[in-house]
Amino acid sequence: MTTATRVAVVGGGYAGMAALPGLRNIPGLEVHLWDPGVGQQLLPELPAALAPDDPVERHVLPFAQLLAGTGVVHHPHGVVEVRPSARLLLDDAGHQERFDWAIVAVGSDTAWPPVPGLRDHAQPFRSAADAQRLKSALAAAPHGRILVGGGGLTGVELAGELAPRGGVTLVEALDRLLPSLGPGLARYARDRLERAGVEVLTGRPIARVDEGTATLDGGPSVPWDVFIWAGGVAAPAAPAVEGASHDQRGYLVADAWGRVAPHVYVAGDGWIHREGERVWPQTAQSATSDGRFVADEIGRRVAGEPPGPPFVPSSHGMLVSLDAHKGVGWVVNEGWPVWGYGARVMKDVVFRQYRRTLAARLRAWRRP
Ligand SMILES: Cc1cc2nc3c(=O)[nH]c(=O)nc-3n(C[C@H](O)[C@H](O)[C@H](O)COP(=O)(O)OP(=O)(O)OC[C@H]3O[C@@H](n4cnc5c(N)ncnc54)[C@H](O)[C@@H]3O)c2cc1C
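Above: query sequence and flavin-adenine dinucleotide SMILES. Below: predicted holo structure tokens.
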């Protein structure tokens, strides 16, 4: 009896879900998805879910619906180890499952710099569960002072979303917000936030955190009732991949096709794309391209074909929402700055388009 070739997709986020439809074209393949969650978390939409009338579940697409009729088997567990030598996955429920090819697409974690008290007091914001916890904390402190640590994309979006509540302070260690955008766009974002009542403090890292107060390097102290930490991303702690190398930040080192070990590929935030000195930003768009690319590559390997051309990173742009009506960013290969209402509308269109495209690609899979 011959056993079917089995592909294990570890992580049902942007990269994992983009990989799935690409695998359907490979005859006789069994596809298994490991993800401890109930659905795909649309992380870029989560700041909007902090609005009292916008439930977090609206931004999680249930796997049961997405995968219905596709034959993909969902394992609701986190993978802790990938062993290419034995072609085995080990999950956090103690199961061992075989694979022939695996895609590790588990996203990133929150980065916690060694600031005394930070980890004990601040709330992270990297998952639907984090968003739900934060919503509860905000509901329990309706007039509370809110401190947002980190003035990158997530911190700026959170500060803008929460601004109408009042009492929001945004702290960034660098001299300006949004280092991934040009200085003019960053100034626009700051101006917009300040006009909405957000106190923006730049150039001063948080030096220590105590209950109700964060002390900035060189002063002042910022009081808080709710403290959200959005100060960067780190390599995910799991799964361990036997035999794989890691860079200085702990990310898996991949070749130009995303391969990190024999028969094991990485995609999404976990695949760091470098071009000389440049490190490409970890975005939903990039994760989607990676997922599709590695699925194609596995298809070639299963068919016994030689590898295709190496992956070439590209970006259509980056959009940051500042409130319900304004945004800022780059479009068209990051060469065309956009701001104001147009940028915000474009961001909404991108969100809607993502949902439509994913649904259409999975629908096509269901057709005989
Ligand atoms: C608040 C916020 C706002 C953002 N805004 C934008 C934006 O506007 N535009 C943009 O392009 N990008 C944005 N990003 C970044 C973007 O969301 C990520 O780059 C993208 O989600 C990465 O996709 P991924 O597939 O690598 O990981 P994810 O989408 O994070 O998915 C990873 C999946 O892996 C699962 N998982 C984790 N560990 C394991 C394990 N051990 N075993 C099995 N499964 C596991 C998780 O449950 C999750 O479902 C934002 C991120 C955040 C947090």
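The chain has a mean pLDDT of 93.
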